Structures are given as C-alpha cells and as structure tokens.
Amino acid sequence: MDASSETISARLLAWYDAHARDLPWRAPPGSPPPEPYRVWLSEVMLQQTTVAAVKEYFAKFTRTWPEVTQLAAARDEDVMAAWAGLGYYARARNLLACAREVAARGGTFPDTEEELRKLPGLGAYTAAAVAAIAFDRRAVVVDANVERVVSRLFAIERELPAARPEIRDGAETITPDARAGDFAQAMMDLGATVCTARDPRCLLCPLSEPCAARAGGDPARFPVKAPKKAKPARKGRAYWITRAIGGRTHVWLVQRPGSGMLGGMRALPDDGWKARTDGHGEAPLAGTWQAAGRVNHVFTHFSLELHVEMLAGNVAQGPGEGEWWPLDHLDDAGLPTLFAKAARLAVAMQEDAA
DNA sequence: AAGACGGGGCC
DNA sequence: GGCCCAGTCTT
Prior knowledge:
Layout: H1 3-19, H2 36-46, H3 51-64, H4 68-73, H5 76-83, H6 90-104, H7 113-116, H8 124-135, H9 144-153, H10 164-174, H11 180-193, H12 212-216, E1 233-240, E2 242-245, E3 248-255, E4 266-267, E5 289-298, E6 303-311, E7 323-326, H13 337-353
This protein binds a DNA duplex through helix 2, helix 3, helix 6, helix 8 and helix 9.
GO molecular function, one term: 4 iron, 4 sulfur cluster binding
Cofactor: [4Fe-4S] cluster
Protein name: Adenine DNA glycosylase
C-alpha cells in the first residue's frame, strides 16, 4: 500500500468513525467484533439483497436459534419456512448445511478466509467479509458497493462483469492491514449512503479529492455495465384445493423439489410453469374449477403470469404427495412470495363467496 | 464464461 | 417498465 492508498483508507476510516450505520449484526467502529455466528448469518442473508429486507429475518433467526449449534439442530422445514420471502432459497439450504458443518467442528467457525471459503454458501465475498469483520483478518472484500466505489475512485472504463479483476486489484491496493473489518464495512456504508448508484453525494464524500470519476465530472457513469438480456414471459397455473377437517378449512400444499426454482419450499400445486409458455396445464383433480385471479411476479431471469384456479366443493383426498394445511395458520407454512400472493387471492375469493 | 436463482424498493 | 441490491453454484 503506497502513501496515497494510506490516505484513502485513513480518510475512509475517519469518516466511518463518525458516520457508521447502526445495524443489529454490527459492532460500533473500533470495538471488538460481534460473534462469528451473527456476522456469518447476516452476510449470508445480505447476499443480493438489502439491509432493510434483512433486519426482520435476522431478528427472527437469532431469536429462534441464538447459537449456531441450535440452528444446526433445527428441522430443515422450519428453517426454510423462516427464510420464506427472503428469496434465493439455495442460500437457506446452504446456511443449514454450513451450520451443521460448523456444529460438527464443535460449534466454532474457522478463522481464516481460506478455510471459511470451503464452507457451503461462502463464496469469495462472504469468506472475505467474515474473515475481516469477525476475525479482523486483512481480506479484500468486494461486494456491489465496493465495486461501485472502486470503479469510481479509479474511473474504470472496462464494463462489468469483465472489470471484476481490475476492480479487485484496485480494492486490494487500498485495503489496510489494520481495522480490516471496519474498512470493509466503511466501504459498504459509503456505497450505501454516499457513493450511491444514482445521484452520488460527492460533497459529503471523504474520498472525493482522490476520486477520478469525480474529477471527470460524471461519477454516476461508473461502474460501466454490460447491457442486460431481455426477460422472457411465462404463464402458468396454481391450484387451490380445500377440505374441511374437524370443522376447519385446510388447503393442500406440496413441497417443491430440493433444487431449482423455489427449491425445497412449501407451495401450492401448479402446472409446471417453469417449463411452459402457453399457460395450459392439466388440473390435478377432476371437478369444477373456478378462476380466482392472476398473480404477476418477476423473477431474476423471467416474468410469470400465474393464474390461480379454485376447486369447488370439499375434496376427499389431495392429489399425489402433499399435506392438508389449516387455513387459519397459513402464515406459518412459509410459502414463498409467489404462492403467498396466490393464496391471498384465493382466500379473498372464498370470503367473497361466503 | 454464462446461466440459474427472489424479492422489494426506487424512479 | 427498468435498475438496483453485503453473491453463490452449476454447467
């Protein structure tokens, strides 16, 4: 690290001392790190999502499973249900697999980036972040915030994702040996509150003086990104099947396969919309079906128009594998948002009919 | 190297 | 409607 890089990290850390965000999984600047379990849990939850979305889930998980060994001992379906709505459900499957590996090691997380990287669900970013934040190891932590800050600081013209190695090199040159965790979190806070994607607030930025993009006059131009591919549109159907058991209405839920879209999650039966574009599926039971409405939902690589169909009457037996779930406890089923939306439609339709 | 993989908030 | 976000895994 040369003199100007020292200036950059020193300026950033001084700014962080005064402006760090107060977050549930975080220790204040300059203080001992939080428990590795909490750092790891928050970092996995934060992958590809936002602080606001994670807070409630972090509170629920740490309340339900205060230690990694308790999470390791939890039932898969309880963890998946607790994760429902947060998305990218492979993260929850890897979270549980990782907790169980750590529990098998005696409940202690490895304390080096290299060893952390071998755990399920810990890629380059998360291994570096946990090493830095939980264990104060020097590690080059590069997330979307850091990509934005570094690409502006050095005015990197190469477009993402091809610019990743160049950005990583830039991050490496400014990462200090001391206060690695604070530095990593400072970069993220700067990206989240000052060096924002739209309308960066350069007047408040501790790095505005050395920033090449700022000098160039149009910092928001960075990072340069490759054009996105168009999202295909799909159509499909979901089925709402009910039965009264002991005077309580139950709805038929299935469990989705362990891999693929919404993998391992409880769901309404559907027609396999994943593979369809025409929206013409076979109903799982014979009978009189009634349209309950339509859900529009956008996934990462396609959008879906899901038509919800209700079966009139009281079914004696559900189709295939599944379970009758009491309607008054449907919130506990842990339906992913797509099916939670579909269920809301069906419930509203049933209440109208009643 | 490219694609699969959620969801919500903002403009 | 498009863009963005504390990325990882598979092929």
